[in-house]
Amino acid sequence: MSSSTPSFRRLLVVIKQTAYEEYSQLRLRGQAPKALRWKRLESRFHTHQQCVNDLVDILKRNNLQFSCVNRAELDRQHLADVDLVIAVGGDGTCLSAAHFLDHGTIPLLGINSDPMSEEHKIVKKKKTDERTSHGALCACTAANMKGKLPRILHGGGILSTRTRIQCIVKSTFSETRLVPALNDLLIANPSPAAVSRFRMGWLKQVKEPVQSLGSMTDPSYLPKSQYGTVTRFGGNLYDVDNSLNVWSSGLWVSTGTGSSAAMAA
C-alpha cells in the first residue's frame, strides 16, 4: 500500500549516454564512422531526452531530492547518502549502475527511456538499428512511468533480490577483485576470432612448506606442481586438481538474470 509520504529521501538518477551523443563527439574530432544513420540516431536521442525531462518533472512534483549523473561518469562517491538509484536508459544502464552497488543496500530502479515497440519484438531483423532497448531489467518505461513511478516512490513497489557474480583475478603475489556483475562473466581472448586456451579444474588446498620468513617473498617458495598452478587464496595455498586443458571460445558464467537474458536474446 502506498502512502502520501515518499519512501526515499534522496535519489541518484543515472542517465545513459546515447549513441548520438557519443558519435557526435567523435565527429567533432573527425573520428566518427562514415556510414551512420544520423537522423535515426538523433530521433532516438530526442526520445531518450524527453523521458529524462519527464522523469525530472515527476521527481520535482513529488518534492524529492535528487541529483543526476551521466552513466559514463558514475562513481561510488555519487552514492553517498543515496537511498535509491534510478537508471534511465535500458538494460545496459541498469547493469552499469549495479556495478557500484557493492553491498546491495541501495535499491535500483530501471526506466526504459526508449522501449522497443511490439512490432520490433515480433519481427526479428538481421540488422539492428541504432534504436531501442529491450528493457528486461526495467520496472517501467517512458510510456507508463507517469502512472507507475509516483506509486513506487511512495512505497507501492515490490523489492526483489537479484544474485550477482564476482571474479577475483589472482597471480602469485597480487589479487584483483572485479566489480560484481548482475548478468554474466566472460573469460575469453580479447580478440573474438582467437581461441582461448586455459586450464580448468577444482581448487585443492596443499600443505604449507616450512621456509624461513625471508624466503616467503621469493617465488620459488611456493611448492612445485605439474602445471605450475599453485597460488594463495585467503592466506592458504591451493593447487588445481582434476583439471583439463581447454581450447574454446571462452568460459561464460551467468547468474539467473544473465542466463534468462541470454535465452531471450
Name the features.
about 25% strand, three-stranded antiparallel β-sheet, about 260 residues, five-stranded parallel β-sheet, alpha/beta
**Assembly of the depicted chains:** single chain
N-C termini distance: 35 Å
The portion of residues forming beta strands comes to 15-25%
Main sheet strand line-up:
2-1-3-4-5
Helices, by number, come to: 6
Description:
It is a single chain. Helix 2 packs parallel to helix 5 (about 145-155). It is built from 6 helices and 12 strands. The model has no long low-confidence stretch (mean pLDDT about 85). It has helices at about 20-30, 40-60, 90-100, 120, 145-155, 255-265; strands at about 10-15, 65-70, 85-90, 110, 140, 170, 175, 185, 195-205, 230-235, 235-250, 250-255. The strands form 4 sheets. A 5-stranded parallel sheet has the order 2-1-3-4-5, sandwiched between helices. A 3-stranded antiparallel sheet has the order 9-11-10, with no helix packed on it. A two-stranded antiparallel ribbon has the order 6-7. With about 260 residues, it is an alpha/beta fold. The chain starts with 9 loop residues before the first strand and ends with a helix. A hairpin with a 2-residue loop joins strand 10 and strand 11.
